[in-house]
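Colleagues,

Please find the record for the two-part complex below.
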Amino acid sequence: MLVACATFLLLIAGALVTSNDAGLSVPDWPTSFGSLYKLPRMVGGVKFEHGHRMVAELVGLLTIILAVWTWRVDRRGWVRKLGIAALATVVAQGILGGITVLFYLPPAVSTAHATLAQTFFCIVVVLALVTGRGWTEAPRMELAESHRLPLTRLATVAAASVYVQLILGAGFRHSGIKLLPHLVSAIVVTTLVLWTITRVLASYGSVAALRRPAVVLMALLVTQLGLGFAAYLTRVQWGQDAVQPEMPMIVSTVAHVAVGALVLASAVVLAMQAWRHMGRAQENKAISPSHLRKAVNA
Amino acid sequence: MNKKLWIASAGLFILLGLVLLAGCSKKQASNEQEEGAATPKATATIDPSTVGSVQGTIKFEGTAPKPVKIDMSQDPACKGTNTSEDMVVDNGNLANVFVYVKDGLDNYSFEPPKDPVKIDQDGCRYHPHVLGVMAGQTVEVVNSDPTTHNIHPTPKDNREWNESQPPKAAPIDKSFARQEIMLPVKCNQHPWMKMYISVVKTPFFAVTDKDGKFEIKGLPPGTYTVAAVQEKLGEQDQKITIAPKGSQTVDFTFKPGGASAAAMGD
């Protein structure tokens, strides 16, 4: 959970770099102005870029501890591998960050850097989820699927669509693609996420493990749509001719990136919970939604 | 989640990454074409006794936007007041317009001057805001501010670079190999700091002063296309003919938003 929170801060720090157009204010990498340890004067764009590097170093350190700890403590092989995957991802992310500085922010590399940041955040959120008591101590519920399209698949597709949407958003933000794909994708993502939430609340509303992430996802989705509109106004409509990055644009775009990460994390958590409680359910053994409601009412 | 789903998810992410890499690498490609530019065959020489000149005034018609005050509080070392320079209009006269002979000099070849042109960073702004330079001529960048700047040209046809320059550091000497009009230069440490360098193959260029005036001297007799380029308003062209020892006046008038499609991006 600590690594997940630190990573969320790192995402915000990274978003601040982009919104303040400060990505190249420190021209070298892995050094900062020729030094690995000296703190440069933290003014202008340097405070965003070097601040981002400092938070990234902290997250890297925490991830090493997390990976070693998970490897030593957790008995589940896939969780131990996920810890190693987190470490590999954070290393790759650091290298991508360096490449994007050394090659003057090529859109593809900057977009990949932004995308891998979201991937890493998802990995540490999943690690926080599966190592928490809610996962390790609570039994599987073996719930039955009530529809032709299982909730497991629906929630997975919804989470994947959010991930694709974040890639498209990063592509636009780093000038690699136009805005239209991100806008069109927003309609698809909203539809899929709302469909998933509706299914959870209608059929499994009494299952806290599913209801909670669904409700959080709903709140985040509404917030994210509002922030997306605000970011469009402040950056695309009003900010085109701005002589410098303006506060409303910075706040709205950074918040849009941060809440986007939370939407993805919530969608992944919901999908994970759906797979946990329904993924291996056999039709004849599983608890049907109608039985579940009766059981809860009784 | 089962193993197959994990593999499918990983495959999807890798595929998305490849699609992005394939689709978004336009910036890298444009920088690869630095060498091998075709230079025109020079056959003609200029007779100094016949050269003429072209001069004129660049006007702005309509209501000029008021300069926007820049907030420099991010860096306490940036003293004084600073305003936007993207459109500097005084009594309807437009400053910082780059004027050059765009066409008609293909038969001539010109060596870049030995003397460098200077860019100074003073008061956390560039002096000048628009600079003309010949391809291959040295651009000397100095920092008169008590703070570090980074100088970062973002060209389309020349090689990109980004170097920091602390206070009192030695000048940075650079040159640009290929012609490129209104090449943006910025400082990422102070994101309001922007300027434009126009790199041309001939010495026949000028930048309008605060009265919107320009003069280009030493033109051999002939017919030319003269272009005036403004960072927000785009480009206007006019055909002129210079007689031996002739003097031609060419005025341009820009209107707000009139050439938005050709505006200089950064």
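The mean pLDDT of chain A is 90.

Comments are welcome before we finalize the supplementary table.
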